[in-house]
Specification:
The complex is a heteropentamer, with one copy of chain A (307 residues), one copy of chain B (400 residues), two copies of chain C (352 residues) and one copy of chain D (282 residues). Chain A folds into two domains: 2-47, no CATH class; 68-306, MetI-like fold (Orthogonal Bundle). Chain A has 15 helices and two strands. The longest helix of chain A has 32 residues, at 275-306. Chain A starts with 8 loop residues before the first helix and ends with a helix. With 307 residues, chain A is mostly helical. Helix content of chain A is 72%, strand content 1%. The N and C termini of chain B lie far apart (45 Å). The longest helix of chain B is centred in the middle third of the chain and has 24 residues, at 170-193. Chain B is an alpha/beta fold. The model of chain B has no long low-confidence stretch (mean pLDDT 88). In chain B, helix 9 (170-193) crosses helix 17 (363-378) and helix 17 runs antiparallel to helix 18 (383-397). Chain B is globular. Chain C is of the alpha+beta class and 352 residues long. Chain C is built from eight helices and 21 strands. Chain C has helices spanning 42-50, 92-102, 107-121, 136-149, 166-183, 194-200, 218-223, 228-233; strands at 4-13, 16-26, 31-35, 57-62, 65-66, 77-80, 154-158, 186-190, 203-208, 211-216, 240-247, 250-252, 260-261, 272-277, 282-285, 291-298, 303-308, 314-319, 330-335, 341-343, 350-351. The longest helix of chain C has 18 residues, at 166-183. Chain D has 15 helices and no strands. The longest helix of chain D is centred in the N-terminal third of the chain and has 32 residues, at 73-104. The chains are: A mainly alpha (307), B alpha/beta (400), C alpha+beta (352), D mainly alpha (282). Chains A and C meet through helix 10 and helix 11 of A and strand 6 and helix 2 of C. One magnesium ion binds at residues 42-43 of chain C.
């Protein structure tokens, strides 16, 4: 049996090319990702067991930070508010999905200029949340905001949405829904493109029309789009930071905080620098998100196996 | 100065005076210092004021300058405790400083040592629309009853007594400072800031009860929780509110917005409890030498230069910082507000001078309490709940 | 009476007209196949009958009812699509019952009908499965089942078998034929597969560019096409066409040797005609030398030889016996005169 | 197509639809239009409480002039470009390689590494905040554009890998096999065969990442401070502090800050949407 | 010598074995076709030869060289894929020259070789186009051209024509056959198309479940299959199989009437055999009545009748003359005894 010459470095590499190549291709990306994402996640877990102001030495306190969080929960303090608001965000943010679907259905036509319309409707997603926050702050402004001008037409108001702890979270979510709806809309528009026209025709022959057609035939086919819309919306809801930071800074009196913002406030804002405590909040947020990540990965795993 | 000529090497100075006017002032001052020390290579870095507050943590440990600006009192405590600021008690022992800067020594003292020098401070107080007062036939109040009576008239005229923007919380801290110092005195206020008194103490409640009187009568503008302090200015400019409890830095924007010195005036916050001495808020801005600085000799010389009587006169005059000099030998600019402020602080503040709530209380406590103040201003009925919350926070924060 | 009648049916997409005034009568219970080259309008015509495309002009009747502008669901038709168009999220049973459900039929009745249909199509074991878990043939059966359940008067099929592989195609072809025998409904079937058209149809409609070329029973079209297009289109391998000289009732072509007498009504004065002859109607004359065997393809029972005539024309002949030609052989050919057809070289019309 | 194509419906429905489109759009973009309107108003309109009416005079040139010549805005914009462009290049380059490795090769840990990227991509980035900030500090990159760029590249690599890997998966594998049979080394297969085919994905991803990074606010706040390194999203807040209550200038600033991604989106609209389809719906 | 030899070649995917020890010798210049049902391992075997799949056990030689664990590039093979696998971003010329370019061949030489190949395949007019701008057949030609350019010793084709439509398929089939004649390289060709296998192959390898069932020339397999599987697999329509009683050299079955004498070496003691007969080797006896015509399919020149034997067995017969059976007719059948094959009902092996 002829043996391939192994003495030569070149040829060894060539021989094992297929086995080594993927690792060479992966190396830079993996390195970056490890250093900046994966390892920090574990560092955060670790840090959450310490008390550290970012200056001196960190002091190991075990689960003390979590205990504090627990008491904040019991006392209905900032952590409680943040968690509660996070849940409200999670729930209400999902409204972007039906809203996006509705707009997508509205725009799914082939009239002249529709392409331009579609992109203009997508606009809110492209602009920065900072700008969105600013715009809506003005919209809600109690003295001159358009909202109150509008309400006064009906003899209502004035309403200080961002200054009232009962409305503030909803007000911010509403602002967030604007770009998120645009995002869902575009997902659905691409999804609608992929709907099998023959199934629609089969449905027409079967006598399904309007809403029943939508419910029984279109929506099931839009499942992938809905799934992605769901994932990005959930993640968007849990990550919500920019809007709160711009619109209220968590106020009034901390009633619009969410975990993401609270964590920032505790760890890095002017009055903060309780790094360990912040890390503990992040861990809680991470655990919530983990449910969704697991769900997402599980779906992907099933699909991969399916192939 | 006699020893100065031999200074050599590099001197790195970090400044947080990022607004154009103060920045120019400081740079000019450094320029003058450089002229006296041609052997010294001076490098100045100006950092955005807000950014500076977080960045200081980084540069004190790595890439450290020789001199840095900061704030007095509790605000410098974390760095002192972490050993990041140089002990400059030696400077304070020098007669020139010991004699002339005595009034601010307390603010820079922790554990009996001094950790920096002040370079400017400014008074707080009530800035008001003199024309509106005249229109309503009011005079500057001095007692709580006069205050309430005045306010009642203003409210009846369809205005708010006070404009305020509490979105960023600290403005409410100013109100609390004054109300509490007037109700319970400077000592008590300090104890509270240091966590030595319960928030559910009757005396604290009294402070809030006084505050509530104003709130209930509609003394403050509506929706203040949505405005920053600047956004609250127009209410005063437009005549929707008659006064503003604020630091002297509010004068410049009010003038810019078109109010003349005839329309604008100043009075000291009224006395409430006749049994306590008047005390004032006068936040002090400071210079420090980081412990890791490399050219401490030059840095010390710079600090001496900054607090010298001439420089203090120069940098605090109306054309420059427009604030109060810290050196007793300096001249106060003849701006009417500076004069009034200087007079007030030097002769009518027997109780003491506080730095400001968020500098006197630990950061965490400041944050939680100011949130509470804001909530109280919007929902005074929640007081008990708020105080309970603050008390819990106190127990946690001061515990270690 | 549930035949289908088209009356000057016309379809335009904007400016372009794709169906040019079709008149067609499909009898009750008939199995009618539309064939024609790609793009000739087969699908369009079928979809006009289904109501999935607007009819621009003309009328369509199903039975006695005019349905030209009726909703698809109201026409009493069911359609089976090339891609099956099963609802992927419903089980087989749900797929089949969906139409009835939409029309508010009672659950028990739906179940019964689904049961019946799945009986006919042997789908019982799969009723609970999703389409994904079925093979191509099974899916197609479900699609047919869905059509049956609705009990339509007319079944429409658009190339229902073209996504199946060869073996399954044969199987399903037989199945559909059996179904037609069993339920006897009118069926209209679009295909481009020769074999399907020939074996299943009662009546074949040959379309070309949106016009009907010929309508008739399969073997009629095969034996007696009206024109060159139909002659060439029906039959595989296709009919051979030779451009011949014509004189005195005889055609002559280099491949033939002697001129051949053909009985056809060729108009006087014609000197050129197109001769058509199917591969199986050519006999080999091993003594002849006129043609060269270019290639032979032995398929087992039958083999095809591709001949080159002396003038370069090509001819395909079918050989069945074991003694077959080989590449390079020189042979002569003899056409069965009764099977020779003559066409007008210009218009393609057949001289009968 | 669902819903039923409008051109197959009665004339009246068609006209209603055509009329509703611009109306709906106006409503939808109302907030943005308001900002645009604000940005050309004179300051006087705001003191006179003429917030929503027509501008009493057109001051667009002055307002935008202020933004460009009298503030740090140009610097912030420049910073944004200097952060966004290298990030886009870096993240796309890295993910082309990781996507190739994960999409083409079969090895044991393939799926797990892929899932790691995906999971990392969905991590709430707050959990990274403190360690990443420390890391950046230790590297001496705090408050530098480089520090921000490095982190963005790393974090975006997760999403980009998901996207690229799925895209490469959808390429016909025979192309790679054909190349292998032809004796082409793996690196060259990547460079000459796969990379050219990924052009659409690269284009789409570039636009997406450009938008993401340009609009990033959180990390800009965490890792940088001050005009010398902060991008425009963070800059606009200090810009707004500078021009507090000068709504016309804040509006003009916002419009300027929003413009580049919008322009990018319009230029590359087709890729953008294709990108979402590929990366997301897949 | 560049034949291909497989020696006990085995392929396992983890636990599942898909190729079970294949021994095969393909001569230099031979055209060898792999056929077999879907999933039998045709592609796997081909890809093992190409080096795209690891060979788990056994050896593969190309010419005299052992290549079992060699890189695909080093084996001197070229492969043509079902999906063409053209690089879409390169022109036709670049596609064809790419392999050479990457291996550092000089520009001028590449050009020359591409020129030659495109000559052979008549691709000159398209050299500057991208694959997108080509028809399916042209693309397949480019794929072949790419293979030719590299001047490999062995060509491998994996169902290269199955993505083309019927007409083009016929055309390309002829083209590949011509190419083989012209360059005379060894070619291995996977298909599931009867016609391709029969018409192109020098040698057909019938695979089933990863094992070779029979190897031989096409007509040999058709006429002389080794077992029931091959007999049934080769030929279309498939051979008829009847389970018969066997005694004294004669088989009897209800469809046949009289027992039929068949000369085959049936082992003593066998009482049951499987009889195989192709449709075209059954003649109709119109006087008989044993079978019923269940269905007839007229394809034009030929028609197939599906008969039901008295015991329910099915038989397909081919009819060619014009006088054909109709559904419901009762007819008798006569098998051509020299064409009858007998198989072991258990193992399926043929008794010769
Ligand atoms: N929506 C449309 N707009 C314009 N022309 C169309 C449209 N749909 C079909 N056509 C044209 O109508 C003609 C007939 O199309 P049709 O699909 O009926 O052909 P077909 O006979 O079914 O072809 P195939 O065998 O390929 O399915 C074609 O020329 C096609 O281009
Ligand atoms: N990666 C794999 N892992 C496990 N089993 C595999 C793999 N690839 C192929 N197989 C199995 O190997 C067997 C042979 O597959 P192969 O593709 O060679 O069949 P084929 O004869 O080419 O079929 P077709 O005609 O459908 O192309 C099949 O049963 C298939 O399921
Ligand atoms: Mg069609
Ligand atoms: Mg295969």
């Amino acid at each position: 049996m002829s043996v391939v010459d192994v003495s030569d470095q070149e040829s060894w590499f060539h021989k094992n090319q297929q086995r080594i190549a993927p690792w060479l291709f992966l190396a830079p990306g993996l390195l970056f990702f490890m250093v900046y994402v994966i390892i920090p996640v574990f560092q955060s877990f670790n840090l959450s067991l310490y008390e550290w102001d970012g200056l001196g030495a960190a002091e190991y306190v075990g689960f003390r930070n979590y205990e504090d969080l627990y008491w904040e929960w019991v006392d209905r303090d900032a952590f409680y508010t943040s968690l509660k608001n996070n849940l409200i965000w999670l729930l209400l943010y999902l409204a972007a999905i039906p809203a996006g679907l509705f707009i997508a259905l509205f725009l799914n036509q082939t009239v002249w200029g529709i392409r331009l319309y579609k992109s203009l409707f997508f606009f809110p997603f492209v602009i920065s949340q900072v700008v969105v926050g600013l715009v809506f702050t003005w919209f809600y402004d109690p003295t001159f905001g358009l909202l109150n001008e509008f309400l006064s037409l009906f003899g209502l108001g004035p309403l200080n949405v961002l200054g009232d702890e009962r409305f503030v979270t909803y007000g911010i979510i509403f602002a967030g829904l604007w770009p998120q709806t645009a995002y869902c809309m575009i997902l659905y528009l691409t999804g609608l493109n992929a709907v099998d026209p023959e199934q629609i025709e089969a449905g027409r022959l079967d006598g399904a029309k309007g809403f029943r057609m939508l419910w029984h035939i279109i929506l099931p086919q839009l499942r992938p789009a809905t799934f992605i819309a769901f994932v990005v919306t959930i993640i968007g809801a849990l990550r919500s930071f920019d809007l709160i930071s711009i619109m209220t800074q968590g106020g009034p009196f901390g009633s619009s905080r969410v975990l993401a913002y609270y964590m920032f406030e505790v760890a890095l804002s002017e009055y903060g620098f309780r790094m360990g405590y912040g890390a503990a909040i992040a861990v809680v947020l991470f655990l919530i998100m983990l449910c969704f990540i697991a769900y997402f990965l599980w779906s992907m795993y099933r699909e991969e196996r399916g192939h | 100065a006699p020893v100065a000529a031999e200074l050599t090497g590099e001197l790195r100075i970090f400044l947080d005076t990022s607004n154009p006017a103060p920045r120019a002032t400081m740079e000019a001052m450094i320029e003058r210092f450089a002229e006296q020390h041609p052997g010294l290579e001076i490098e100045t870095t100006v950092i955005d004021r807000e950014a500076y507050k977080t960045q200081i943590r980084n540069f004190l440990t790595a890439d450290t300058p020789d001199v840095a600006t900061w704030y007095a009192a509790n605000r410098m405590k974390p760095y002192v405790e972490a050993g990041l600021f140089e002990d400059v008690s030696d400077l304070w022992a020098e007669p020139e400083i010991a004699d002339n800067l005595a009034s601010t020594k307390g603010a820079l003292t922790i554990d009996g040592k001094q950790w920096g020098v002040p370079y400017t401070y400014y008074q707080w107080g009530v800035y008001y629309r003199k024309d509106i007062f005249d229109e309503l036939g009011l005079t500057e109040p001095t007692t709580w009853d006069e205050e309430l009576a005045n306010c009642q008239k203003i409210v009846e005229s369809g205005r708010a007594c006070y404009t305020i923007g509490t979105k960023f919380l600290w403005t409410a801290g100013g109100w609390f400072d004054y109300l509490n110092m007037r109700t319970n005195g400077f000592e008590f206020h300090n104890q509270l800031a240091n966590g030595e008194v319960s928030w559910e103490d009757e005396r604290v409640k009294q402070t809030f009860a006084n505050w509530k009187q104003l709130i209930d009568m509609g003394a403050f503008i509506d929706n203040h929780q949505t405005y920053s302090w600047q956004e609250a200015l127009p209410f005063m400019v437009n005549g929707d509110a008659a006064a503003y409890l604020m630091g002297n830095f509010a004068v410049a924007p009010l003038r810019e917005a078109g109010l003349t010195d005839d329309q604008l005036d100043f009075y000291q916050f009224v006395s409430i409890n006749p049994d306590v001495e008047l005390a004032e808020d006068a936040p002090t801005d400071t210079f420090h030498i980081p412990a890791n600085a490399s050219n401490k000799d030059a840095a010390r010389e710079f600090l001496r230069f900054v607090v010298s009587a001439d420089e203090q006169t120069e940098i605090n005059n109306g054309a420059n910082l427009g604030q109060l000099p810290v050196n007793a030998q300096s001249a106060v600019d003849d701006d009417k507000f500076l004069q009034q402020g200087f007079a007030m602080l030097s002769s009518n503040s027997p109780g003491g001078v506080a730095q400001f709530w968020d500098r006197d209380a630990p950061a965490e406590m400041a944050k939680v309490s100011m949130e509470g103040f804001q909530e109280f201003m919007v929902k005074p009925d929640n007081l008990d709940r708020i105080l309970a919350k603050l008390e819990r926070a106190r127990e946690r924060i001061y515990e270690n | 009476m549930t035949g289908v009648t088209l009356n000057q049916a016309i379809k335009r997409y904007g400016e372009t007209q794709v169906i040019h005034g079709i008149d067609l009568e499909i009898e009750d219970g008939e199995f009618c196949v539309f064939v024609g080259p790609s793009g000739c309008g087969k699908s369009t015509l079928l979809r006009m009958i289904a109501g999935l495309e607007e009819t621009t002009e003309g009328q369509i009747h199903i039975g006695a009812r005019e349905v030209t502008h009726l909703d698809p669901a109201k026409r009493g038709v069911a359609m089976v699509f090339q891609t099956y168009a099963l609802y992927p999220h419903m089980t087989v049973a749900e797929n089949m019952g969906f139409g009835l459900r939409m029309n508010g039929v009672a659950k028990s009745e739906i179940n019964e009908k689904v049961q019946q249909a799945s009986n006919i199509l042997k789908l019982e074991p799969y009723l609970k499965r999703k389409p994904k878990a079925l093979s191509g043939g099974q899916r197609q059966r479900v699609a047919i089942g869905r059509a049956i359940v609705r009990g339509p008067e007319v079944f429409l099929f658009d190339e229902p078998l073209s996504n199946l592989d060869a073996e399954l195609r044969v199987e399903m072809r037989v199945e559909i034929a059996r179904l037609h025998n069993e339920i006897g409904a009118t069926m209209i079937y679009v295909t481009h597969d020769q074999v399907e058209a020939m074996t299943m149809a009662d009546k074949i409609v040959v379309l070309r560019d949106g016009r009907i070329e010929q309508v008739g029973a399969p073997m009629d079209l095969y034996r007696d096409p009206d024109n060159r297009f139909v002659a060439g289109f029906i039959g595989s391998p296709a009919m051979n066409f030779l451009e011949c000289d014509y004189a005195d009732g005889k055609v002559s072509h280099p491949a033939l040797g002697e001129p051949l007498a053909v009985s056809a009504n060729v108009p006087a004065g014609m000197t050129k005609v197109t001769l058509g002859i199917r591969p199986e109607h050519i006999e080999i004359d091993r003594t002849g030398e006129a043609c060269t065997v270019d290639l032979t393809e032995a398929l087992g029972g039958v083999s095809y030889s591709y001949l080159l005539a002396p003038n370069g024309d090509k001819l395909v002949i079918e050989e069945r016996d074991d003694q077959r030609s080989r590449q390079g052989d020189r042979i002569g050919v003899q056409l069965r005169p009764d099977r020779v057809m003559l066409f007008d070289p210009e218009s393609g019309l057949r001289f009968r | 197509m669902f819903p039923k194509p409008i051109e197959k419906q009665p004339r009246a429905a068609q006209i209603t639809y055509q009329a509703m489109l611009p109306l709906a759009l106006l409503l939808w973009l109302g907030p943005l239009l308001a900002v645009a309107l604000f940005s050309v108003k004179p300051a006087a309109d705001f003191t006179n409480a003429n917030y929503w009416g027509m501008p009493s005079s057109f001051e667009g040139a002055f307002n935008y002039g202020q933004v460009f010549f009298n503030s740090d805005m140009p610097r912030y914009l420049l910073n944004s470009f200097m952060i966004t462009i290298p990030t886009v290049i870096g993240a796309v380059a890295l993910s082309c390689m990781t996507g190739f490795a994960l999409g083409i090769y079969k090895f044991k840990s393939n799926l797990w590494i892929f899932f790691m990227f995906v999971a990392g991509n969905f991590v709430p980035f707050q959990i990274l905040m403190v360690p990443v900030r420390d890391l950046t500090l230790q590297l001496g990159l705090y408050n530098t554009k480089t520090g921000l760029v490095l982190f963005h590249i790393a974090f975006q690599t997760g999403f980009c890998t998901l996207f690229m890997r799925n895209f490469i998966r959808a390429l016909p594998f025979e192309l790679i096999e054909a190349a292998r049979v032809e004796g082409i080394s793996e690196w060259r297969i990547f460079w000459y065969v796969v990379l050219p085919l990924m052009k659409p994905a690269i284009a789409a991803l570039s636009v997406l990442i450009f938008t993401f990074i340009w609009n990033d606010y959180f990390w800009a706040v965490v890792l940088t401070q001050g005009a010398e390194s902060q991008p425009v999203t963070a800059g606009i807040t200090s810009f707004n502090a500078q021009f507090r209550a000068a709504y016309q200038l804040m509006s003009a600033g916002s419009i300027v800050a929003a413009l580049p991604p919008v322009a990018m989106f319009f230029l590359m609209q087709k890729h953008f949407i294709a990108g979402l389809t590929l990366g997301a719906v897949k």
